[in-house]
Amino acid sequence: MCLRIIALRFCMLCIWQLIFLNILVPELMFPSLKMIMANKVDTSASSSYYALLITVLVFVIVGTCCAEERSVYLVLMEEEPVAFHGSHLSHEGRKVLALDSEVSKAHAKHLVDSHDQLLQSNLKTGSYNKLYSFKHIVNGFSVHTTPSQANKLKVAPGVKLVEKDRGAKLMTTYTPQFLGLPQEVWAKEGGDKNGGEGIVIGFVDTGITPEHPSFTYDPLNPFTSNISHFSGACETGPRFPSSSCNGKIVSARYFSAGAQAIATLNTSVDFLSPFDAAGHGSHVASIAAGNAGVPVIVDGFYYGRASGMAPRARIAVYKAVYPTVGTITDVVAAIDQATMDGVDILTLSVGPDEPPEDTITFLSVFDVFMLFARRAGVFVAQAAGNHGPDFSTVVSYSPWAVGVAACSTDRSYPGSLLLGNGLKVGGVGLSGPSFGDGEFLCKLVLAKDAVRVNGAFPRTPAYVEECQFPEALDPIIVRGRIVICVFSAGFYNGTSNINAIIDTARTLGFMGFAFVANPAYGDFIAEPIPFAVSGIIIPKVADAQIISQYYEQNIQRDERGFVIQYCARAAIREGRVASFVGQAPIVSRFSSRGPDFVDINRNPADVLKPDILAPGHQIWAAWSPLSALEPILTGYHFALLSGTSMATPHTVGIAALIKQYNPSWTPSMIASAISTTATKYDNYGEVILAEGSYLNSYYPSTHFDSGAGLVNPARAIDPGLVLPAEFEDHINFLCSLPGIDWSVINAATGERCNRSLSHPANLNLPSVTISTLRNSLTVKRSLKNGGSRPETYTCSVISPNGTMVNLSPTWFRIAPQEIQDIEIQFRVIQAGGEFSFGEIVLTGSLNHIVRLPLSVLPISTS
Q1: Which of 280, 637, 730, 848 is catalytic?
Q2: 71/772 Cα distance (integer angstroms)
């Protein structure tokens, strides 16, 4: 937008300059005009010629200066893609006809040719550049062109949908124990050396660091399960030789056409290979499927051993996001290829970070690709987003993808600053003690008191109090001392950073640093980061004031305010030793919240989002030493990170374990098992809490914070009942959306609305969400016995406030693989303006407990 405004202003400047020069000194611009004037040509003729030349040149300048900017557009076509052409797939989504057969190859070629022909017939030569042809699970292509050319495609024959690319963004040593994997699930599947065996997990992300120990192959412990259903490939390139695909990594590809179309890639970090220069992709892959028992060593300190959730699962890499840029066109191309290759599970910790502007959320191109991946039998998990704690901030919308929220565990890394008066002030920071065992006190100096008096630098906060520039501080005063650096304007507006403090501390020989809150800016959020020098972050103003008061009481100043004697002392204590106390899990502040919504106006949807809660706060996992986006982590092989990007692979790894234990289950059955067995209680037996907007602010979580609750692997592999919902059900759901134009659904999916649900809440999800309940509504759920024994269930319900909920039947006996329908009648007894929450609990005679969350907005009693 800014570039366009600048271009328009330049156009106007060109025009005004043209007019000015030709009115006042025309001979400077046009020698021909000088000739006309010298030869005393008839003035009427000369003025006409003069005006014509100005007009022509104005159009030339406007056309040059104000040319349309190109963007990437995604285009969906009418004809069926290869995967669903003919009889390629059974209703469970398993492959029937090989996708590399001659028939498939011929159809794929036909689709590519049709894309090329459409572009050639409708767009000007040289006005576009086709980036990809999608042909496996979706028929379409992406093209780099101008808005006017894209508008031509919208009315071209055979085109269903044209959508502008919105861009793609990035959204453990202990979590296996926290989730009970070693004692429960791994033990049932042969231990950590077998968990996930035979399952292929696809990762659409920033790539992978192949030499990392989390991804190495051990020839003494060969894989035993056949993965003949998978047929990937190993693409090579910078830092990624063919040996990188080693048996643990079974496939690696990269997709860059979109990135290269809209940005100039940096060859030092944007490697055109599956290699991960950022670290994000390696982190995500190792959480889900990293090898078991890998030592985590950072700055020479041993933090424990890391294991993925499914340490024997195979890894298929699809790099689609680069340090410089990420595009949806590269991401969906990767989804298309991963599904074609035959991955069992797909991990999407990347994706669009905002809702689509011109369609409903469920029908964006990104969501359509996930729908067809699900149709092809792939379990898809997606990060819920990092825009919490505000409501309706989820970026996972569709019922066919599992949206994952993030929470803490009971592990933390507490640090403290010991003051000379014996007080200990708590903080965070993964660093060793300032000296010895952290009990030796050294002098404490406020950065502002150590500023060079005659230094030639600006007196801005970055120089004076934020410790960003070594040249601002007197080395004699700060060397060998603990320096107090203050959160100020530079940190508030994002121009200052902790890495610069560390560089200053190294350069000037600090004994350590304390980065403290500033009353002028309030408390701030701080995460533990490995510091190469001793340091601690004090994010609370109250604690910073304790330090300030002690400091001022133990220094002497002259009449000008300069310190003449430093008597305050302190020590930074060990901050790298984990503590396992406190309430957990707690929904992380950053984790995006529901309710789900159907459009950019955030009108609520009858779908529960997020679906599930998983650990995503302070997670140790593999990292790329290049660390292209996080300079403070450069050189490290492991990183402690937080985000729903970290929660998603936890869920993915657990899905792999469920798939291994129940190989015939469809994605909807796996998703149902994860949801209905989740727990809503923490380690204190209380309802899981959620972090609010401020430090130390908490409230009891609702389904819009934590979904069904914390994932429970031990129960999820044997849930008792599951709720199937397949492709046709999702289409019927779309067709039942209030006010939906059925032609829009047909345009996006290629499917016609031959039937619809009586209400969107009738989609057979493992939850019920009703965004507008007037008087009463009855919905149905179909439950399947996924076990091998008959079981009797009794039904109970906790009604949401303002409603009365009745179930029919109130008990039932169900045989193995049998389906049992239950009716759920909602009736408003008191209208309100907010959602309220409850649950249905089905208790089985074989100790299975099945929970269905209820979220209802009761509008009126009539």
Answers
A1: 280
A2: 38
What is the C-alpha separation between 858 and 855, in angstroms, rounded? 10
Q: CB neighbours of 221 closer than 8 A, spacing ≥ 6?
A: 193
Q: 364, 396, 534, 645: which one is catalytic?
A: 645
What is the domain partition of the chain in residue ranges? 2-65, 71-164, 169-297+305-405+604-722, 414-577, 767-860
Query: What digits encode the pLDDT tens for the residues 348-377?
Result: 999 998 899 888 999 999 999 999 999 999
Which residues does residue 768 pair with via DSSP β-bridges, in sequence order?
A: 854
Give exposure, 705-722, as e/b (b: 16+ Cβ within 10 Å). bbbbbbbbbebbbbbbbb
- Which one of the listed residues 205, 330, 341, 596 is annotated catalytic? 205
13's CB contacts (< 8 A; 6+ apart) are none
Tell whether the torsion through CA atoms of 47, 48, 51 and 57 is positive or negative. Answer: negative
CA angle (110 as vertex; 106, 114 as ends), nearest 5:
175
> CATH topology for 169-297+305-405+604-722?
Rossmann fold (3.40.50)
Kindly report, residue by residue over 418-463, the tens digit of the pLDDT.
999 999 999 998 999 998 877 889 999 999 999 998 888 999 999 9
Q: What is 767-860's CATH number, 3.50.50.60, 2.60.40.2310, 3.10.129.10, 1.10.8.60?
A: 2.60.40.2310
- Residue 205 annotated as catalytic: yes
CB-neighbour burial class of residue 95 (10 A; exposed 0-12, middle 13-18, buried 19+): middle
- Please report the pLDDT score of residue 605 as a whole number: 97
Q: What is the CATH number of domain 71-164?
A: 3.30.70
The kind and range of the H/E element at 120 are: helix 102-122
The model's pLDDT over 123-134, given as tens digits with 9 standing for 90+, comes to: 999 999 999 999
State whether residue 240 is helix, strand or coil. strand
pTM listed for this prediction: 0.88
State pLDDT tens for residues 133-173.
999 999 999 999 999 999 999 999 999 999 999 999 887 44
> What pLDDT sits at residue 25?
30
* Average pLDDT rounded to a whole number, residues 617-642: 94
> How many Å apart are CA 697 and CA 690, to the nearest integer?
8
Which CATH code fits 414-577?
3.50.30.30
